[in-house]
What we know:
Number of strands: 12
Strand content: 5-15%
Largest sheet: 5 strands, mixed
Shape: globular
Helix content: 40-55%
Strand order of the largest sheet: 1-2-8-5-3
Amino acid sequence: MTATYNLPDGPQIPRWLRMIKFITQPVKYVDDFAKTYGDTFTIRSTSSDNHLVYFSQPQALEQIFTADSRHFEVGRGNSGLRFLLGDRSFMLSDGDRHQRQRQLLVPPFHGERMRAYGEDIRKITQQVSHEWQIGKPFNIRESMQEITLRVILRVVFGLNEGELFEELRRSLSDLLDFITSPIMSSAFFFQFMQKDFGAWSPWGWVLQQQQKIDRLIYALLRERRAQADQNRQDILSLMMAARYDDGQGMSDEELHDELMTLLVAGHETTASALTWAFYWIDRLPEVREKLLKELNTIGVNHDLSSVGRLPYLTAVCQETLRIYPIVMTAFPRIVKTPIKIMGYELREGTAIIPSIYLAHHREEVYPQPKQFKPERFLERQYSPYEYLPFGGGNRRCIGMAFAQYEMKIVLATVLSDFQVSLVNKRPVRPVRRGLTVATPAGMRMVATPQVKRANTPALV
Length: 460
């Protein structure tokens, strides 16, 4: 007896035309399909079994995220990142290997260890923001990238200053800026763009930069292995000390690939989220006023743990990640053994796409979903199948708690010292930046000193 497979309806347009819209209008791409086809739709492939099926209903996401992981292959769905992350990245692995890698990487991002990094985040934020010239426009995204890159180099790589720090900072910044530019973003989706025609060709330059970064990272690993200091608390040192169940540690190749993974996953994404947060805080004066009143309740020399507990600041961060999630979909799940989701029988090879953006814009879950309203997160709690900016299931981002903590500290630190205002008050729409969506690259703001206030009662 043969199985009967069925797929939801979907667009019938040429792939090249669809891909142009996917790359140039990432939000409109899914919005338009959802309006036409509803909660679930299929992007059909020329291959009979490699169709993409989008899901966004909470019950569908629950079925996907709680299904036996043996039904899916996830690493292959991220193969477009292999050139950047390497072959051994936990993002590209599946099954027992993925689980073993996660077990080694998760502990440094939680609990007291994570909170110990807070002072580093605050100092770096102050260093960067105090370089702004009062009243002179600056690129807010570039500042946020500088902060998040320095945080990664300090907290993850264990670097704070010196020649290696400066070389890595410049090289990583140049590479990530280039490959996430509007033109090179297409290289993530079109293999033909990943051709090396020498050092002066775009992809040749990318490979040259990667080789330079590789040399720097392996030099760092050699230096760190030669050191006898067992008390270092940066994430690289904790990774080097960690052991698999068989007593083996990670090889230099594994450490290299995991460092690149943590960098790519934790630098650009957090910088984009912070840029959006400053955009919304300036666009909506009532949001700024509530934030400043709340920050005023903890005083100037506040304990960083109190920042993490501020309810309205937390809500602003949550709403920022809801309205325009930096990554619009969770990791694609490629079906290995047939599975039934929401009544659809999906065959081997089908790619399941959990849509974070569409899940975050469901009217019945988030009334007026296009409006920025932090209060919605004070009024109710959402399930992990309704609110999922960091993905879900066994592939949820391991740096979720750290990213949220970093966002809060950066926002609290900047807003305590400055009011940052948009130069151009026109509303902006998200644009593609590599595999993520972000504010337009040229968005500029002006910083003015924050007016210090007398203490006011806490928000109710």
